[in-house]
Write a structure and sequence with these properties.
Length: 276
């Protein structure tokens, strides 16, 4: 049996001296991560409030939101003619008729209502944020900004997509289908009911990636689980396209269903980028 060399002895001594010094560093890293997690899970503005105080706060936020919506609707009603003309553009050369007394007046109220709600929606979201903010941790508060801006961007994107793609495709289908049989004279009320419903339903459908990101960040559903259920998503997109589109033409339903699929798989990509 040979005696260990001086080099081996020095390496053993170095390793034995190094191991005790590594342990405190590792423990310090674990402690710092735990402190960071505790800091993110804290409620910085936690305030003890009774049920009556919560209800009073909710009543106040709803009151402010209603006032903002009413002001926005009145402002849109005063300038409703340009909005109506803008929404008539996808119809092209189609003529609109007022089939009952006051039909255009009630259409103007409806258009102003939808437009005012859209304009006042940032203020409504702000009031919602103020109401829920005291009960959110620092980690959850960090999601508010991205979720708010992402949701607003996607909703506006849904409106633009419906206005520029879905509505023209649906109207073109209906116009060409009966071009040789009937003259295109449409009720203005039915037309705007069709346009407004399609635009807002498409805007809501475009919120799918936001829901996916929230589910992923909160650890409820992972990106792999979302991807594994793609067959059900394809079926759901077809059903959603049929339910949300007020028309029955297959082209509009296919466009909306395809957009829903693209948004869903894009949401999976975002969740993967977030490491979930």
């Amino acid at each position: 049996m040979t005696a260990p060399s001086d080099l081996e002895t020095s390496e053993q001594n170095f390793d034995s001296n190094l191991e005790p010094s590594i342990a405190p560093i590792a423990d310090g890293g674990v402690r710092s991560r735990n402190l960071e997690n505790e800091f993110l899970d804290e409620l910085p503005d936690e305030i003890e409030m009774s049920l009556f105080d919560h209800l009073e706060e909710l009543r106040l936020r709803i009151f402010y939101s209603v006032i903002a919506v009413v002001i926005a609707i009145i402002g849109c009603f005063l300038y409703v003619r340009p909005i109506v003309k803008l929404l008539e553009v996808p119809a092209g050369a189609v003529k609109f008729l007022q089939l009952a007394p006051g039909e255009y007046f009630f259409v103007s109220i409806k258009v102003a209502g939808y437009s005012g709600l859209l304009i006042a929606s940032p203020f409504i979201f702000y009031q919602i944020a103020l109401f829920v903010l005291p009960g959110l941790t620092r980690k959850e508060r960090g999601l508010l900004g991205p979720v708010f801006f992402g949701s607003s961007f996607l909703f506006l994107g849904g409106l633009v997509f419906a206005y520029s793609a879905l509505i023209p495709a649906a109207l073109n289908f209906f116009v060409t289908y009966g071009a040789d049989v009937v003259e295109q004279l449409w009720s203005i009320d039915k037309y705007f009911e069709f346009v407004l419903l399609l635009m807002f339903s498409t805007g809501l459908a475009f919120q799918i990636p936001i829901v996916q990101v929230l589910l992923g960040v909160l650890g409820i559903v992972s990106s792999n689980q979302m991807l594994s259920g793609w067959r059900y998503v394809v079926l759901g997109a077809a059903v959603l396209g049929a339910v949300l589109t007020p028309s029955t033409d297959p082209l509009t339903q296919s466009l909306l269903g395809g957009a829903v699929l693209g948004l869903y798989f894009g949401g999976i990509g975002l969740v993967k980028l977030l490491g979930r």
